[in-house]
Amino acid sequence: MIAVLIARNTFREATRDRVLAGMAIAGIVLLLFVQVLTPLAMGQATRLVVDLGLTAISMLGLLVVLMVGTSLVAKEIERRTIFSLLSRPISRSTYLIGKWAGLTGAVWAITGVLGLSLCGVMAIRGSAAYGGSILQATYMAALELAVITAVAVMFSALSTPVLSALYTLGVFMVGHWCDDLRAFASQFPPTLARVTEVLANVAPNLALFNMRALAADGMPTSPVHLGVATIYALFYCTCVLALATAAFESRDFK
Amino acid sequence: MAMAWVVALGAGILAYGTAATAYVRLPRPQPFEELAYYPSGQALRPATLGHAETAADLAWLRAVQYYGEHRRTDLRFEQMAHVFDILTSLAPRFVPAYVFGAFAMAQEGREFSDAERLMLKGIENNPTSGELAFEVGFLYYVRPGGRDLRKAAQYFEQATRQPDGPPQAARFAAFARQHSGDLRVAFELWKDVYEHSGNKLMREMAEREMTKIQEAIETGRTELAVKKLATPHVNVVKSNH
């Protein structure tokens, strides 16, 4: 219940932030601007709109996480407002989960708005049939952003905003290279291969949430894929938030 | 404050003029210069951070502009093979890229081997695409300097076996087999067209060809069923606009 209250406040705070509104507007403007490029695509306009639209959703969501999420806890530590919160009977895990849930809710709100806008643009273009696959791809992007938000909250609880942003960005990049790491591991000597494989499994497997190639062809993904991605996101967020709690509990604010 | 506005306006006008002049006077990088430095699409893929399809779309836009520019001027497409290799490595299921790139290279670019390589890469990445198999067959069918009817027939037949194969693939396969001299297989393919086509004219055509083939086999006179098809040539007229 307390976590829900913290989440609600965090959501309210994040949605009032000009960054979120700016990102939403930027996303919609980008979706409209892409229409200008479509005559140059020589018959591939639909694919172009879907690909650029889904990329905009992912990238703008990531920017929100980097700009808002990485200073989420650090800001409260800096302003000392965290003392009044933690002096109440609120566990640090409840606090972090509430913060994560609130920001994830805000990121999902912006992702939802942009995803529905993209569906609207496709419907206007006479390609309403792409709506289903676009919504699935948007859901997957939202799951990916939830995982990155958990990572951002963890770093925010342990470090300064700038370093948190850099670490989060680093984890995001490594997360997209998991498949390449596994491919490299097969070329390495056994010990190094093993270490690389472990790293590829420890880093968030963000390629699992990527169904942009299918969406560009208007094809849905399987329920198994959706289910596995959801479960993985749940496990990974739980793990990261638990680590964040463990580190945060040992932190002394004096 | 008024002074600040005046300075801003003046400097802005100077900057605008400098940019416009520089664009006209200074040498510009060609659209594909930056892509020429990348060894392959596989090397570029990690840099896209999961957005390889979007990167491929942006490369497609540049490729279309490149084609248009050289189609209007010198008809030299030296970078096409490399760029379409990158593009299709980033987006292996981007079927129109294989088709457009290959036909542009084969016809206007007169580089059939590059075109063939690109199309075969497409088939490897999209083995169940009937649409692509048909286009590969067609590439061999219209090969400048001499059709390769056997390979054309092979891919037309592959197209007929896929769910998205175009309906005309069956008669193209039969036609190509027949005129490559493989009469027995051609007969079976025409029979298939006769038995399954919903078009009366197609059935009549299939029946005629089956009759010709049967007569050719029985009499040993293959010229009754096999024609020497005209050699395809490419005659490119430069566009004036």
Keywords:
heterodimer; A: 254 residues; mainly alpha; 12 helices; globular; B: 241 residues; 2 domains
List the helices and strands and how they pair.
The complex is a heterodimer of chains A (254) and B (241).
Chain A: H1 2-16, H2 18-37, H3 45-68, H4 72-79, H5 81-86, H6 92-124, H7 131-158, H8 161-176, H9 178-185, H10 190-202, H11 212-216, H12 223-249
Helix pairs in contact in A: 1-6, 2-3, 2-6, 3-6, 3-7, 6-7, 6-12, 7-8, 7-12, 9-10
Chain B: H1 2-25, H2 33-36, H3 41-44, H4 52-72, H5 80-90, H6 95-108, H7 112-125, H8 130-141, H9 149-160, H10 169-180, H11 183-196, H12 200-219
Helix pairs in contact in B: 4-5, 5-6, 5-7, 6-7, 6-8, 7-8, 8-9, 9-10, 10-11, 11-12
**Helical stretch tally of chain B:** 12
Tell me the overall shape of chain A.
globular
User: Strand share of the residues of chain A?
Assistant: under 5%
User: How many distinct helices of chain A?
Assistant: 12
- How far apart the termini of chain A lie comes to 28 Å
Overall mean pLDDT of chain A stands at: 89
Number of domains of chain A: 1
Q: Which ranges of chain A are low-confidence, i.e. pLDDT below 50, for 5 or more consecutive residues? A: none
- Calculate the terminal CA-CA distance of chain B, rounded to whole Å: 50 Å
How many DSSP E strands of chain B?
0
Q: How many distinct domains of chain B?
A: 2
Tally of DSSP β-strands of chain A: 0
Element-by-element helix/strand order of chain B: HHHHHHHHHHHH
The arrangement of helices and strands of chain A along the chain is HHHHHHHHHHHH
In short:
With 254 residues, chain A is mainly α. Chain A has one domain. Chain B is mainly alpha-helical.
Task: Describe this structure as you would to a colleague.
The complex is a heterodimer of chains A (254) and B (241). Chain A has 254 residues and is mostly helical. Chain A has one domain (2-249). In chain A, 80% of the residues lie in helices and 0% in strands. Chain A is built from twelve helices and no strands. Chain A starts with a helix and ends in a 5-residue tail after the last helix. Chain B has 241 residues and is mainly α. Chain B has two domains: 32-126, no CATH class; 149-229. Helix content of chain B is 67%, strand content 0%. Chain B is built from twelve helices and no strands. Chain B has helices spanning 2-25, 33-36, 41-44, 52-72, 80-90, 95-108, 112-125, 130-141, 149-160, 169-180, 183-196, 200-219. In chain B, helix 5 packs antiparallel against helix 6 (95-108) and helix 8 (130-141) runs antiparallel to helix 9 (149-160). The longest helix of chain B is centred in the first third of the chain and has 24 residues, at 2-25. Chain B is elongated. Chain B starts with a helix and ends in a 22-residue tail after the last helix. In chain B, 34% of the residues are buried. The mean pLDDT of chain B is 86. The A-B interface holds A 37, 40-44, 47-48, 51-52, 54-55, 58-59, 172-173, 176-177, 180, 206-207, 210, 212-213, 216-217 and B 45-46, 49-54, 56-57, 60-61, 64-65, 91, 93-94, 96, 100.
